[in-house]
TrEMBL record:
Keywords: Oxidoreductase. Residues 20-134 form the Gfo/Idh/MocA-like oxidoreductase N-terminal domain. This is Oxidoreductase. InterPro entries: Gfo/Idh/MocA-like_OxRdtase_N (IPR000683), Gfo/Idh/MocA_domain (IPR050984), GFO_IDH_MocA-like_dom (IPR055170), NAD(P)-bd_dom_sf (IPR036291). Residues 144-257 form the GFO/IDH/MocA-like oxidoreductase domain. It comes from the Bacteria. Belongs to the Gfo/Idh/MocA family.
Length: 343
């Protein structure tokens, strides 16, 4: 037998005893939450950050007691794992440059603006034999794990329906979500979470039907989707102009679950069984919540894995594919420069 590392079993790059050295590209809202969350992930360190505006990089580095790298390349050559916290139009660019330095990547959602762009990222990660995962946080929360155990111990029968949605009424006019050229719109910014939940419980999407509203800038302001999956139907919505409650319902033949708002940062759920039994699940989270997916990613990195078994490449492809179809049905077209990155 050959001792050469294979794609299935590559050589772990980080020793169990060494802290995993993280870097962050982009220093906005979510980068701050990630940096705070890293304090809750054992055996990790924030080695440094890089942002395109030097002053912002320096501000963030001072705030989180780390260094501001002079260049992106210098950073990815000095770390084990990169957290991509820029807007989605640039995720592919930074991911590919990180893979070139053999650096693992945890990439904010949506990992790319289209299935084509995502495939390029995933192919490049596979080619480089490095770990890549979309930062889809819900399944790593303590509540989600409690719920999974509850449903294994006391199933709700065959799960055939998922309803999930969220809409925010008060995004400022200059928010990137309204900008077509940045991959804006409610689907990519919010709907990706809903697509995850539906696929997680109902399997592969087979057909998508969409109604919605497109705003003046050309992005989807509201989208309502009916999706046919292998195991059932989901009803999903995302919006940028109305106040929509962010809870989720998972319905089976012997009961149903409500994950209370905001379901993508879950801490409470109610399980109703046919016959009247009700089980309340309560599992507060610490560290802001991004720390759980980060912990999972660090474990994968130490094992030498190149893909998460939970947020797999296939799952990420299925999520973005639902949104691709919905955008097409609404007539939302991103500029080629971001949709077909690196052609
Ligand atoms: N997981 C979650 O809970 C969650 C929550 C919110 C957002 N997100 C996702 O996280 C990502 C960032 O969102 P955010 O709310 O943190 O946005 P934000 O506050 O606007 O921050 C974005 C950061 O990325 C930088 N940036 C944008 N485009 C860039 C480019 N082409 N090259 C280099 N830097 C660039 C910005 O730099 P400048 O200041 O120079 O523009 C800024 O530092 C989005 O993909 C979003 O969907 C995830």
């Amino acid at each position: 037998m050959s001792n050469e590392p294979s794609i299935e079993n590559p050589t772990p790059k980080v020793k169990p005893s060494s802290p995993i050295r993280w870097g962050i590209v982009g220093v906005g809202n979510i980068a701050g939450r990630f940096a705070q969350g890293l304090n809750f992930v054992p055996n990790t360190t924030l080695t440094g950050v890089w942002a395109r505006r030097e002053s912002e990089s320096a501000r963030f580095a001072a705030q989180y007691s780390t260094q501001a790298f002079a260049t992106f390349e210098e950073m990815v050559n000095s770390i084990d794992a990169l957290y991509i916290a820029t807007l989605q139009d640039s995720h592919a660019d930074y991911a590919l440059r990180a893979f070139a330095a053999k650096c693992a990547v945890l990439c904010e959602k949506p990992a790319a603006v289209s299935a084509i762009a995502l495939k390029k990222i995933q192919d490049a990660a596979t080619e480089a034999n490095v770990l890549f995962m979309e930062a889809m946080k819900p399944p790593f929360f303590p509540l989600f794990k409690r719920l999974t155990k509850q449903l294994a111990d006391e199933p709700i029968g065959d799960i055939k329906f998922v309803r999930a949605g969220s809409s925010i009424p008060d995004a400022p006019e200059d928010h990137p979500s309204f900008k077509l050229e940045l991959g804006g719109g409610s689907l990519l910014n919010i709907g990706i979470y809903e697509a995850f939940l539906a696929i997680y419980f109902l399997g592969k999407p087979l057909k998508v039907q969409t109604l919605g509203r497109v705003g003046e800038s050309g992005v989807d302001i509201f989208a309502s989707l009916n999706v046919l999956h292998e195991k059932g139907i989901s009803q999903l919505f995302s919006g940028l102009d109305v106040d929509g409650k962010g809870d989720a319902v998972i319905a089976g033949t012997k009961g149903s679950v409500t994950i209370h708002e905001n379901w993508w940062n879950p801490s409470r759920a109610t399980v109703h069984y046919v016959g009247g039994r009700v089980v309340e699940l309560d599992a507060p989270f610490e560290g802001g919540g991004l720390n759980y997916e980060t912990d999972h990613f660090c474990e994968l990195l130490r094992q030498g894995a190149t893909e998460s078994p939970i947020i797999s490449h296939v799952l990420s492809q299925q999520m973005i594919s639902i949104l691709d179809v919905a955008r097409e049905e609404l007539g939302v077209v991103y500029p080629c420069a971001i949709d077909h990155t690196f052609e």
